[in-house]
Specification:
With about 250 residues, the protein is α/β, with parallel strands linked by helices. It contains seven helices and eight strands. The longest helix is centred in the N-terminal third of the chain and has 25 residues.
């Protein structure tokens, strides 16, 4: 019995250590750059509201009644996307909801889409999207449709430096895939290889000189390519591409 108790104590100790290490890992995020976030907060063209569930960016003028639920990349600070997505909201008229994923990892966040769309009840139609692994999770949410009671209607999918792992080729969704020519993680080759999982009329837009981290503002990311673009240029181009797509 004493030996069994020692073994049990050792197993519990190892499991506790694994949990602690994982929690430290999950909460060590790539922080958003403060100047970029402040510029978004000070932008008179949008109104930003932060809640425990997500961050809502609403255009002050020209709101279309459509919205985008955006899921951040793995272990990326949700606020790192404020600057780029405030430009998207301003240019397109979309209300953007940036989710705050469970443990900063989209795959651990199993809350329904309505958790986030409830933050903008005035929106009638929703797109889902995301960056990197957040985009992969967005594909899953889009593929779930709106059959469940109380779940919102999903009309389209917007991928930012990302691609799907589930088959949406027969989904009938409007899909926009925005990639970076210098992306070292979601490379042009990976985007092309996963293209058959998307509808045949998917719109693919590759941004010249843009790398993986350019879709947010959180500094360099290991394994990424080199960006040759200015952040303001990327923000403006993202806004234009999304506005043309939803328009």
């Amino acid at each position: 019995m004493a030996r069994f108790l020692r073994i049990l104590a050792a197993v519990v100790a190892v499991l506790a250590l694994v949990v602690v290490v994982f929690l430290v890992y999950a909460h060590t995020v790539m922080q958003g750059e403060r100047p970029a976030a402040l510029e978004a907060w000070r932008d008179d063209a949008v109104e930003i509201t932060s809640t425990d569930v997500g961050i809502v960016i609403e255009p002050v003028e020209g709101a279309t009644g459509e919205g985008l639920v955006f899921i951040p990349g793995a272990k990326v600070d949700p606020y790192a996307y404020l600057y780029k997505l405030s430009g998207v909201a301003e240019a397109s008229g979309l209300t953007v909801v940036i989710t705050k994923p469970t443990l900063n990892l989209a795959f651990f966040d199993q809350r329904p889409l309505s958790t986030f769309t409830a933050l903008a009840p005035e929106v009638d139609e929703w797109y889902v999207g995301g960056h990197s692994l957040g985009g992969v999770r967005a594909c899953q949410l889009a593929g779930g449709g709106s059959d469940a009671a109380g779940e919102p209607s999903v009309v389209g999918l917007v991928l930012f430096g990302s691609y799907c792992a589930n088959d949406l080729s027969e989904s009938g969704l409007d899909v926009l895939s925005i990639s970076g020519a210098n992306d070292g993680l979601s490379t042009p080759e990976k985007i092309a290889a996963a293209a058959p999982l998307l509808p045949a009329d998917t719109e693919f837009v590759e941004l010249a000189g843009v790398n993986h981290a350019d879709f947010g503002d959180y500094g360099a990311q290991p394994g990424d390519g080199v960006s040759t673009r200015d952040d303001a240029e990327v923000r403006a181009e993202l806004g234009t591409v999304v506005a043309e797509f939803v328009g």
